[in-house]
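Sample entry (368 residues):
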Amino acid sequence: MSNLALVHKLEFQKHLTPEAHPESPERLAAIDEALHRSELIQELSRLEPSQAELDDLTSVHVQSYIEDLEEKGKRASEQKGLLQLDSDTWMSPESYSTAKLAAGAGVEAVRGVLKSGYTRSFVIVRPPGHHALPDQPMGFCLFNNVAIAARHAQRVYGLKRVMIIDWDVHHGNGTQDMFYNDPSVLFVSFHQFPFWPPNIGWYTEDGNGDGQGYNVNIPLPAGTGDRGYLAAWDAIVKPLCLEYKPELIFLSAGFDAHQADPLGQQQISTSGYFLLANRLAEMAENVNAPVVGFLEGGYNTRSLADSVVATIKVLNTADKSQRENIQPFAGIYGGELPAQTKDRSQHMVDERIKEIKKHMGRYWKCLR
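Predicted structure, serialized as tokens:
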């Protein structure tokens, strides 16, 4: 049995968007091709997703929103076309069922690591989820896949401490909203700042009530590269994880902070994602927590595919000694990987990390 279970189906390409829309079925087609060309697909176990149950959807979304989304899906089906939900979020005739399947894939991934004996799982789905709010779609997202999976882990398996790490270039505003008052979920979001969504994601947004201190934003300036992301991980994420001791770690794995991505201005390389995944794997082993990863953003199909394969390759490797022997992933099309990328302004990045540590140090001993 492989260390990592892949949760994926061709049906996720049935959610359609307008021509030239960045969140397209071609994203998953490129990942599928990369997995086969790298031969990694032969090493992985596969889990079969099914559509999420209503109880799972209503654990984070209000029922009236779910019903409204279903009704709009029917309308798109009757019109045999696309239905626009907001400025950049769309539904096609198959979108509602595909979104339910994406949410159910996360539930299956949780089952894989908590019941079926896998150490890690990775969910390759669309539509993505981390912008979806309790009562509305947003930013290409219909259901918040990672939030639904986290609540399932708590509701069905009784977990008390869950950690969600979001390294998408955009702030995980939907996930933040759902757990802002909840100390049973430690949410950490890396994101470019200022950026989209506007006016959200600053580090002083640290939770509310009993959840204060459990919402950790890491807003990094445009132009932050591998060096800055790894420095923030080492200074903030790892110490928090070791102090919190989560029973399960979720990753909202957006790859749109890649230097080749058309939507962001960050400078992470494929090597950088490889190194971040190594940090995640080692950290999870230190607290004996399984890992469930979710595909979020990433809109250059080549850099997306390479980075997904690099991340899965690391997470599928059982222990640190084995990972040290992995060759850095050179991309499905060959060629040399770039060296670790630097920050446009190392001083700005380091000052931001210091500010975040100082602020969050009022809640966490490890950051003082």
